[in-house]
Every structure is written in C-alpha cells, then in structure tokens.
Amino acid sequence: MCYHYSLKAETRELERRYLIEIEDSLGFDPFVHVSCFVKPSPLLPVITNEKPRTLQLFKWGLIPFWAKEQDLSYNTANAKMEGIESKPSWRLPIRSKRCLVPATGFFEWRHIGKDKYPYFISLNDKQVFSMAGIWDSWICKDTGEIVNSFSLITASANSLMEKIHNTKKRMPVILSRQDEESWLNIDIEIQEALALLKQYPSVEMKAHTIRKDFFRLGGNSLDVVEAFEYPELVLLN
Question: Residue 113 and residue 53: Cα distance in Å, rounded?
Fold first, then answer.
C-alpha cells in the first residue's frame, strides 16, 4: 500500500513539469514527508481531469459523494486496481474523476522477523513523477461545504518493491510521462484506462533505508530521507 509520500518540489518546478500555472494564493508548500494518518487531513496537490492545467489541493482519503458523513472510516487512502471498476467507492470515479498525484518519493517498510525497517523509494533521476489517483466531491448537507478528496491507486509490487514491502507486496501505480495525458482523458474506454495501471519498472527506481523515527522529525526536514544503514541488513541485501 502507500500511506506516506514526499513532494520536495518548488512551484516553478511543478509548473514546468506539468505545463500549469500555480496561483500564489493556493498556499502550496513542498513537503518531505506526509502521511494520510495525520488529523486533520492535510490538503495535498493533485491535477484532475476537470482542470488539467491547474494544481488543486485535495484531502487524502476519498470521501464518496454518497457518504452520509465526512468520515475516513471507509479506509480510502488507497484503492486497489484489482476490481476498482466495480467497488462502490471507486466505480464511478475510475470512469469520470481521475487525477495525477505529483510526488518525488514514497515510504514503505520491510519486515524482518519482529523488526521492520523504513525505506525511501524514488526514481533514479530524482524527478517529479505522477502517481495515479481517483477523486470525488462530497457536499455537506448541513452547511453546503464541498470537500474534494482523492485516493492513490495501488498495484502488485515489482521486484524491487517485493523485497521492501515484503508482507502485502503492493506499491503505488506510477504513470509514465507519456501515459499521464491518457489517464486524465475520461473519453477513452474504461479498459484502456485500466491498462495504464501497471507496474513501474524496477530498473528505473531506487531505494535506501532511513532512520526508524523519521516521522518524528517533521514534514519538512531533509533528515527524513537521509540514508541510514542497519548493519544487520547487510547480509540480507
């Protein structure tokens, strides 16, 4: 799964990467670490099919439009690609509300016996990449407030992630740059869209262990992603 990720990229870099314009009033700040478990849910940048040239800030953890309350008990931070077109929370968004979730890396744990070791995973060239997402809008019946939220789509792990996320063996779907526009195009057939949800090549990714208490360092400390070696893992690598 994917419950922690990073977007250490300034506004101008995102504007160049996605050919968009970001208004100063948006209030976007880069972050080294964010978690979907933070309360209240942070607003994070996405690019949607409805506004493909605009960066918007949505909550992480999709709230289905039909939900009675604004509640994350649906456990919707992630959406498994398997069966996504038929699950109640996902079946409409996968057809009409797709988004890109910019990132520069994500975090996962490797389990060895009773211990677990955190890793930071990124692409080889440290570029900003896009994770595939779906989104929805929920309206509070009492106040009329509109809450936009998203889920990250996950797939089975590639060979690198099988070694790291060695329990559930999942990873976020990372879209190739040439597939990003197609993902946002809701006019294509659903099977064509689903075909874009594939494993990213292991050879184009890298990973290193980080300190176990990284989440205590704050969301903007570069020490969070600093490599940290564990001697007991040397013989296992």
Answer: 47
- Write the CB contacts of 154 (distance below 8 Å, at least 6 apart in sequence): 1, 2, 78, 79, 80, 81, 170, 171, 172, 173
**Rounded to two decimals, what is the model's pTM?**
0.95
Distance from C-alpha of 191 to C-alpha of 110, rounded to nearest angstrom: 33
- The whole-number average pLDDT for the span 9-15 is 93
A 10 A CB-CB count for 191 gives: 8
47 and 185 Cβ atoms separated by less than 8 Å: no
235 by Cβ neighbours in 10 Å (0-12 / 13-18 / 19+) ranks as exposed
Q: Where are the domains of the chain?
A: 4-233
Q: Is the peptide bond before 201 cis (omega within 30 degrees of 0)?
A: no
Please give the average per-residue pLDDT across 206-225, as a whole number.
90
Q: What CATH architecture is 4-233?
A: Alpha-Beta Complex (3.90)
Answer whether 59's CB lies under 8 Å from 69's CB.
Answer: no
